[in-house]
UniProtKB/TrEMBL annotation:
<dbReference type="Pfam" id="PF00528">
    <property type="entry name" value="BPD_transp_1"/>
</dbReference>
<comment type="function">
    <text>Part of the binding-protein-dependent transport system for glutamine; probably responsible for the translocation of the substrate across the membrane.</text>
</comment>
<keyword id="KW-1003">Cell membrane</keyword>
<dbReference type="InterPro" id="IPR035906">
    <property type="entry name" value="MetI-like_sf"/>
</dbReference>
<keyword id="KW-0813">Transport</keyword>
<dbReference type="InterPro" id="IPR043429">
    <property type="entry name" value="ArtM/GltK/GlnP/TcyL/YhdX-like"/>
</dbReference>
<dbReference type="InterPro" id="IPR010065">
    <property type="entry name" value="AA_ABC_transptr_permease_3TM"/>
</dbReference>
<dbReference type="GO" id="GO:0006865">
    <property type="term" value="P:amino acid transport"/>
</dbReference>
<feature type="transmembrane region" description="Helical">
    <location>
        <begin position="20"/>
        <end position="38"/>
    </location>
</feature>
<keyword id="KW-0812">Transmembrane</keyword>
<comment type="similarity">
    <text>Belongs to the binding-protein-dependent transport system permease family. HisMQ subfamily.</text>
</comment>
<dbReference type="InterPro" id="IPR000515">
    <property type="entry name" value="MetI-like"/>
</dbReference>
<feature type="transmembrane region" description="Helical">
    <location>
        <begin position="122"/>
        <end position="152"/>
    </location>
</feature>
<protein>
    <recommendedName>
        <fullName>Putative glutamine transport system permease protein GlnP</fullName>
    </recommendedName>
</protein>
<keyword id="KW-0472">Membrane</keyword>
<feature type="transmembrane region" description="Helical">
    <location>
        <begin position="80"/>
        <end position="101"/>
    </location>
</feature>
<dbReference type="GO" id="GO:0022857">
    <property type="term" value="F:transmembrane transporter activity"/>
</dbReference>
Length: 273
């Protein structure tokens, strides 16, 4: 008796068709957005002046290449983001370890910090640190913004790191203890390297949120990308051109960050236990 033939299409063809369908859907959505933008512009009578945007990004003078105000603001944004990201990871790790500690006081402090930060708006926290804490500690608006962002994002990063640490198999802990490792050596050489590889995707999402949340520091007169865009808009009334450009710069930064982490994931994929 003959067996029925498998008439299903090959897997690679199914994947190709799915990718083609996704690409077609994406192009349709983008075409629809472009049409809506063009139609809205036509009906409002807005006069686009994109030719004026390059000088706010960079200029070439007799003295050479000069960064425009938008890219100068981007430099401030990147510095704030980089410093805040480092502090975020440190605060998140300390809080995660406190949450997992056997000390009731440590767990209580960590829990109180997380509840306070996660249940209040970031803007209010920035204002509180800038207007109340910064004068007492005699710190600048730049560092007040970094502290506020680090505390806010660190509360969320702590849960991500705690989940990664908790996911490590008990055999790994027992093996480290059987070798007589100290807690510091155990976390440094055994637990954290595995945990970090597991939580790279959610940590990347948190880093992207940090980049976007950094726009709020413009409210305390820091000349970041958003503040520079606001000032140029007030001077030129190029509202759509300026804010579309600012949005595109933020998008480029977040896409570059996500792409870098994806490369790291592929590099360390073979090391995942």
């Amino acid at each position: 008796m003959t067996q029925p033939r498998d008439v299903r299409p090959p897997r690679h063809r199914m994947i190709s068709r799915t990718a083609l369908a996704d690409t077609g859907l994406y192009l349709c959505v983008m075409a629809g957005l472009v049409w809506l933008l063009a139609e809205g512009t036509r009906q409002s009578g807005y006069n686009w002046q994109w030719y004026q945007i390059p000088k706010y990004l960079w200029r070439v003078t007799d003295q050479g290449f000069v960064w425009g105000p938008l890219l100068q603001g981007l430099g401030v944004t990147l510095r704030i983001t980089a410093l805040s990201m480092g502090l975020m990871l440190g605060i998140g790790l300390i809080t995660a370890l406190m949450r997992m500690s056997s000390s009731l006081a440590a767990r209580g402090v960590a829990r109180g910090y997380m509840e306070l930060i996660r249940n209040s708006p970031l803007l209010i926290q920035i204002f509180f640190i800038y207007f109340v804490i910064a004068p007492i500690l005699d710190i600048s608006a730049f560092w007040a913004a970094i502290i506020a962002l680090s505390l806010f994002e660190g509360a969320y990063a702590s849960e991500i790191l705690r989940a990664g640490i908790s996911s490590i198999a008990s055999g790994q802990w027992e093996a480290a203890q059987s070798l007589g490792m100290s807690p510091y050596a155990m976390y440094r050489h055994i637990i954290l390297p595995q945990a970090v590889r597991r939580v790279l995707p959610p940590l990347t999402s948190q880093a992207v949120s940090l980049v976007k949340d950094s726009a709020l520091v413009s409210t305390i007169a820091i000349m970041d990308l958003t503040q520079q865009g606001r000032m140029i808009d007030a001077e030129t009334f190029l509202t759509f051109e300026i804010w579309f450009t600012v949005a595109a710069v933020y998008l480029a930064v977040t896409l570059a960050l996500s792409g870098t982490v994806r490369l790291l994931e592929r590099r360390y994929a073979g090391l995942r236990p």
